[in-house]
Write a structure and sequence with these properties.
Layout (H helix, E strand, L loop, with lengths): L1 E4 L11 E5 L9 H11 L11 E5 L8 E6 L8 H17 L4 E5 L10 H15 L17 E5 L2 H6 L3 H20 L7 H13 L4 E5 L1 H7 L2 H7 L7 E7 L13 E6 L1 E5 L19 H15 L5 E11 L11 E3 L5 E3 L7 H16 L3 E6 L3 H7 L4 E5 L2 H14 L3 E4 L16 E2 L8 H10 L7 E5 L5 E2 L9 E2 L4 H9 L2
Parallel strand pairs: 1-6, 2-4, 2-5, 5-6, 9-11, 9-14, 10-11, 13-17, 14-18, 15-16
Antiparallel strand pairs: 3-4, 7-8, 8-11, 12-13, 15-18, 19-20
The structure holds ligand BES and zinc ion (2 copies).
One zinc ion (ZN) binds next to β10.
């Protein structure tokens, strides 16, 4: 659906030519486009102020049905994210007009002192992600996505970035896959079914998989995963997705394995420590880490990533029932450590530590990253658009934050103070899953995880805020955001 175009703009036939306009600087290098902007700005009604638009119908040129001039504000405030937002908004606006194809004129990156792939990549990404409509559960489908978005640029850039549209589209497809899983209601993705859905998508790619069912989890002694799943009729699973480019080849000297672990709680009622009723429906998104990890693995396979990446995905439903775990219960984790369940709603950390201990034993990874909608406290600390990064490896944390900047899936490094570990002490077991203080509970959650990672370089990304949007954003509709896919693909690409 994404394309790059170059040549003479006047000769390109389109339903709508979209032209981003900067308030206080010329940003286009094509003289035909610059003079169009100049003429329009003479009207004085349109200044290029952010989000101001003018639509012209049947402009002089018989190739274009419309031109949409779209203000992107002052030059000093423009970055890659401005272009994602701009492209997402245009796409949504033109979907409403029932168009099927548009051309977006890219500005000259040099005039903005930005990198070519950053500008063009952001426009392609914003358009592709903004084109996603989640209407699976509506009888009447009101809107149809665009079939084609072309980005017009000069021939030099079009040539050097010729692979960018398909790569961007592959990554956006991964994001959309994660979004759809997250937005799916919990009655349609109980553990067994959600795992089958991930396997079905993975099977089409160069990925191998294995599933540990309830019996295998018992045989392996995964007491923490089993304890969280105990209250639900739909029993827990551990899914392993393995992307291994060394499989049929001689492994290179610098071979590397990274493990990604994703929290897959298909519904988090809180368990016996039942959550309050308001917004409990949103807890269908508590498998966002799992969705992003699975979608990342699928995307890596499509992109033929260079080293081995293994996804380890524990999937459970956290429900109250006569069989559910109780506060005060003591369980034995896969690592052998015993855990007192101080609170059944702190279930994410329980399923993650069994998955992580297993991953370390089976795959001996060079690095391990877990992604989880782990704590409400992280949302209180960083708001709904920024994820928290917790790591004992300063470089890994730095790299994650840097990928967050590049992809605008923002991450902020949080502390892991040794002395806070005392809040996790249990009188009766080796550790308590609940902190003895309610303060800093995103940190104590991360510290709990850190007790199970041994000496593996590890980072934990708490995505409780950005995994899900109640309201539609510039290039994401209401529901799952697919946060993490673009971030991890960028991060792994730089490793
Ligand atoms: N799934 C929740 C965290 C969450 C909250 C995700 C809001 C997305 C939005 C997690 O399992 C949970 O319930 N955490 C508790 C931990 C507490 C019991 C120590 C929390 O954050 O209150
Ligand atoms: Zn919970
Ligand atoms: Zn949860």
């Amino acid at each position: 659906m994404l394309k790059l175009l170059s040549g003479e703009i006047g000769k390109q036939k389109t339903q709508c030519l979209v032209v981003p306009v900067c308030e206080n600087a010329g940003i286009h290098d094509d003289p035909a486009i610059s003079s169009l902007i100049e003429e329009t700005m003479q009207i004085k009604e349109f200044t290029g102020k952010k989000d101001d638009t003018v639509m012209l119908y049947n402009p002089a040129n018989d190739k274009w049905e419309r031109i949409l001039f779209f203000g992107i504000g002052k030059r000093e405030n423009i970055d890659a994210e401005s272009f994602r937002n701009f492209a997402g908004k245009c796409t949504k606006q033109l979907i409403k007009k029932e168009l099927s194809e548009i051309i977006i004129c890219a500005p000259d990156p040099q005039k903005l002192e930005m990198k070519e792939d950053a500008v063009l990549g952001a426009i392609l990404e914003g358009a592709c992600l903004g084109n996603h409509i989640f209407d699976k559960y509506k009888k009447e489908k009101k809107e149809k996505p665009l079939k084609t978005v072309s980005v017009f640029t000069n021939s030099k850039i079009a040539k050097s970035l010729r692979l960018l549209p398909s790569r961007t589209e592959t990554i956006c497809k991964g994001t959309v896959l994660a979004r759809e899983w997250v937005s799916m209601p919990s009655n349609e993705k109980r553990p067994d079914r959600f795992v089958r859905s991930m396997v079905k998508a993975a099977e089409k790619e160069d990925l191998s998989f294995s599933i540990l069912d309830e019996k295998a989890l018992k045989q392996n002694g995964m007491g923490a995963i089993l304890a969280v799943g105990a209250g639900s009729r739909s029993k827990p699973r551990l899914l392993i997705l393995d992307y291994n480019p060394y499989k049929n080849k001689k492994a290179p000297k610098n071979k590397k394995t990274v493990v990604l672990v994703g929290k897959g709680v298909t519904f988090d009622s809180g368990g016996i420590n039942l959550k309050p009723g308001s917004s409990m429906d949103e807890m269908k998104m508590d498998m966002s880490g799992a969705a992003s990890v699975a979608a990342t693995l699928i995307t890596l396979a499509r992109l033929k990533h260079k080293f081995r990446v293994v996804g380890v995905i524990p999937v459970v439903e956290n429900m109250p029932s006569g069989d559910a775990s109780r506060p005060g219960d003591i369980i034995k984790s896969y690592s052998g450590k015993t855990i007192e369940i101080g609170n059944t709603d702190a279930e994410g950390r329980l399923i993650l530590i069994d998955a992580m201990s297993y991953a370390i034993k089976m795959f001996k990874p060079d690095a391990m990253i877990d992604m989880a909608t782990l704590t409400g406290a992280c949302v209180v600390a960083l708001g709904e658009k920024i994820a928290g990064v917790f790591s004992t490896d300063a470089q890994l944390a730095k790299d994650i934050v840097a990928s967050g900047e590049t992809t605008a899936e923002r991450c902020w490094a949080m502390p892991m103070p040794e002395d806070y570990k005392k809040f996790l002490k249990s009188e009766f077991a080796d550790i308590n899953n609940m902190s003895s203080t309610r303060y800093g509970s995103a940190i104590t959650a991360a510290l709990f995880l850190s007790e199970f990672v041994e000496d593996t370089p590890w980072a934990h990304i708490d995505i409780a805020g950005p995994a899900y949007y109640k309201k539609s954003q510039d290039y994401c509709g209401a529901g799952g955001s697919g946060f993490g896919v673009r971030l991890l693909i960028d991060l792994l690409g730089n490793m």
